[in-house]
Amino acid sequence: MCSLPIMQAQDWLQVQPLHLAEATVGPSPLPASQPLQASHRFRTLLVLSGNGPAVDLPETCLTWLVQQFNNASELILIGNVCESLAATGVLDERMVACHWSQYERLKTAYSRVNWSQQLYCQEPLGDSKPCLMTCAGGGATADVLLAWLLSHGYAQLAAEVTEWLLLERGRSADAVQRIPLQARLGNRQPKLTEAVTLMESNLDEPLSSDDLAGLVGLSRRHLERLFKRHLDTVPSRFYLQLRLDKARQLLRDTDMSIVEVSMAAGFSSASHFSTTYRSHFSITPRQERGRSTSVEMGNNLPNLVALQSRLD
Predict the structure, then answer these.
(1) Which of 26, 126, 130, 257 has the fewest CB atoms within 10 Å, measured from its CB?
(2) Residue 54 CA: distances (Å) to CA of 70, 130, 181, 269, 307
(3) Residues ≥6 apart with Cβ < 8 Å to 36
(4) What is the radius of gyration, based on Cα positions, of the chain?
(5) pTM given for the model
């Protein structure tokens, strides 16, 4: 994002790439990368890494990161570098986003960290350190960087960057990662997976529980037992959650009217949709749309990029 022409034209932004062992090669509009130095002081530090299990970072790198954590007024961690820092204890009691595939493992390994499956997390660190932002990588990287621009009051710039990146909108922090049902159930429950797939394919015209059971070749009672045992809910409630999640996404990410959204989510009337939505999310569809903050329109070792606002 920092290499986009529109970002290069920002007088307030000064970017200094950093590297661990070797400088990055190839043409780039960014300044030449520098090795890590203890004397570095940055207003904002952005650390990029992969989203699988973390590798062992050199002790000098971890020490440097902890030092920057204690000195930087803002820290943006993307990917598995969060696990590396969690091992040092500096993220204890912090809300930290991680990839859904690593969530259970990280909860067990670093139980003092508040791991989250949100797309990204943003929380203040205190009076002297106003913000920690984390995300699991992938497409959420764009979302967290757009949120960073918004947090500094650059809404128009964030909208223009969104257009440069060919995105419709940036997603909000409380959006939850979509976890494939196959990852949750494995291959052990093909009938349950088939039922959920049918639900997802028929959100605008919901199927009855009897119809679902018949289509997957089970009795209604048997299907209800499968949902209860493996998903801790009943089919009707799970189906409603899918429809409301779809409605929430449409309210946040499209310009569809509330009536159109209600129809797309399988509700017979806008009033019934609004009542159900408010009961579920404690907010009306109109309020949901009004409060949305969305923007319209490697290798295993992390690459380190510092973003420093000009102080002059």
Answers:
(1) 26
(2) 22, 26, 25, 49, 23
(3) 18, 19, 20, 60, 61, 64, 304
(4) 22
(5) 0.66
User: DSSP string spanning 91-157?
Assistant: TTT-EEE--GGGHHHHHHHTTTSEEE-BSEEEE---SSS-EEEEE-STTHHHHHHHHHHHHTT-HHH
Determine the topology of domain 181-291 in CATH.
Answer: Arc Repressor Mutant, subunit A (1.10.10)
Phi, psi (5° rounding) for residue 95?
Answer: -85, 120
Question: Which amino acid would we find at residue 113?
Answer: V
Which ranges of the chain have pLDDT less than 70?
1-3, 18-31, 33, 51-52, 55, 72-73, 125-130, 179-187, 291-312
Alpha helices in the chain (DSSP H): 5-8, 59-71, 81-86, 103-109, 140-151, 155-164, 181-185, 190-201, 209-216, 220-231, 235-253, 258-264, 270-281, 285-291
Question: In CATH terms, is domain 5-172+297-309 a member of 3.40.50?
Answer: yes
Cα separation, 191 vs 220, whole angstroms: 12
